[in-house]
Write a structure and sequence with these properties.
The protein is mainly α. It has a single domain, classed as Sodium:dicarboxylate symporter (Proton glutamate symport protein), CATH 1.10.3860. It is 74% helix and 0% strand. Helix 3 packs parallel to helix 14 and helix 3 packs antiparallel against helix 17.
Length: 425
């Protein structure tokens, strides 16, 4: 068994606090000369944060590939794989639909954008990346060049190829001298490499938080306080209430114990703002702490990091209502339904990297001719909010992994106790 660094949660929390304190001192005081501020920002916070994120991103593609291939090739039969896939994707799409619906209902009730005039002058970025349409998203799932897809981190294409490769390996394992065992060993190596990198997580978190605070301070929250407060409340409600209902009534699990064991994952996801970068931590926690079968976890978690974006869907739904209200536009019930469908579709195609969901928001705004300039006001507060919704995303990945494993394996009470499910049962 691969052991995680000792006191990881404590050390990451210390890194968070120190990064916030140091960044605030440099931003709000004249504690040191401006030249020293620039040096700290560039050569400590930015350099340290970029190195840490690059190390994590370095292993994301091979980890997703080997995890999926290992999980699928070990499932036993194509019938089992189909059953697992159906339940996994079904639960992910269901929770995402619930998430965006909650955002639309709350936005309609509390109306966070009603205090703004329609002719407000909003600062928009000089250039925005073009949103990827639904057609392009679907086509992008089927890569013409898997090497290029891996080089460009096209996660949907990588997931699709990994599933195909794992299925082929599953069917030909008896002809290849049990080649799946070699992939399982390689997967273990990459997991160990992640653990080694995770030893530096407190330093990485210190730099990431400090970089944000020293650059922007806390003033960015003033203009959109209502939107920020409501979005935070919705994210916390969805993570605490919706997942609890699924865990309790669908999986028969104890939500309180689940959340206690998920604290490391949620905190790390908050720090990195990347579901993909958090995959190794999520896999370890789901398998070793929550007792989910390794084969099931290796399939459900990477797929969830790609298609399960509940936090992103909540942001897109609430942001759409917020911008519509700010522009003096009333959305109809049919348009609300369209928002739900588009938010689910765009969240599936959203890359598991920081702030990617804000860019896919363009698709929804264009659908209803809402002002794209309003994205400027969303981007102003998105960094911290992206941290929180990433924590929601990975919490959903772990919750669905537990539920799918129980439904997929249908363990007896004795099996539950012996497998580790007793920890959350």
């Amino acid at each position: 068994m691969i052991d995680a660094p000792k006191n990881l949660t404590k050390n990451i929390l210390i890194g968070l606090i120190l990064g916030f304190v140091v960044g605030s001192l440099l931003f709000y005081t004249d504690f040191v000369p401006s030249s020293a501020d620039d040096f700290v920002e560039k050569y400590i916070f930015q350099l340290g944060g970029d190195i840490f994120m690059n190390l994590l991103k370095l292993l994301v593609v091979p980890l997703v590939f080997f995890s999926l291939v290992t999980g699928i090739s070990s499932l036993g039969s194509s019938q089992s794989l189909g059953k697992l896939t159906f339940k996994t994707v079904g639960f992910y799409l269901l929770t995402t639909g619930i998430a965006v619906s909650l955002a639309l209902i709350a936005g309609s009730i509390f109306q966070p954008g009603s205090n703004y005039s329609s002719d407000i002058v909003m600062a928009a970025p000089t250039s925005l990346p073009q949103g990827q349409g639904i057609y392009s998203t679907i086509v992008g799932i089927f890569p013409s060049n898997i090497i290029q897809a891996m080089a460009e981190n096209q996660m949907l294409a990588i997931v699709f190829f990994s599933i195909l490769f794992g299925l082929a390996l599953n069917k030909t394992n008896h002809l290849t001298g049990n080649l799946s065992e070699s992939f399982a060993k390689l997967n273990t190596v990459f997991l160990q490499l992640i653990v080694m990198i995770m030893s530096f997580a407190p330093l990485g978190v210190f730099c990431l938080i400090g970089k944000f605070v020293i650059a922007d301070g806390l003033d960015i929250f003033q203009d959109v306080l209502a939107y920020v407060v409501l979005l935070i409340a919705l994210l916390l409600f969805h993570a605490a209430f919706t997942y609890s209902l699924f865990l309790k009534f669908v999986g028969g699990l104890n939500p309180l114990i689940f959340y206690r064991k998920m604290k490391d994952v949620a905190l790390f996801a908050f720090s990195t703002s990347s579901s993909a970068a958090t995959i190794p931590v999520t896999l370890k926690t789901v398998n070793q702490d929550l007792g989910v079968n390794q084969n099931v976890a290796s399939f459900v978690v990477p797929v969830g990091a790609t298609i399960n974006m509940d936090g992103t869907a909540i942001m897109q739904g609430l942001a759409t209502v917020f911008i519509a209200q700010m522009s003096g536009i009333d959305l109809t019930l049919f348009q609300y339904v369209q928002v739900v469908l588009l938010a689910v579709a765009t969240s599936i195609g959203t890359a598991a990297v920081p702030s990617a969901g804000t860019i896919t928001l363009i698709i929804i705004l264009q659908q209803f001719n809402l002002p794209l300039e309003a994205i400027g006001i969303i981007l102003a507060v998105d960094r911290v909010l992206d941290m929180l919704r990433t924590s929601v995303n990975v919490t959903g990945d772990a919750a669905i992994a537990c539920i799918v494993c129980l439904l997929y394996t249908s363990p007896s009470p004795r099996d539950v106790e012996e497998s580790g499910f007793a920890a959350c049962a």
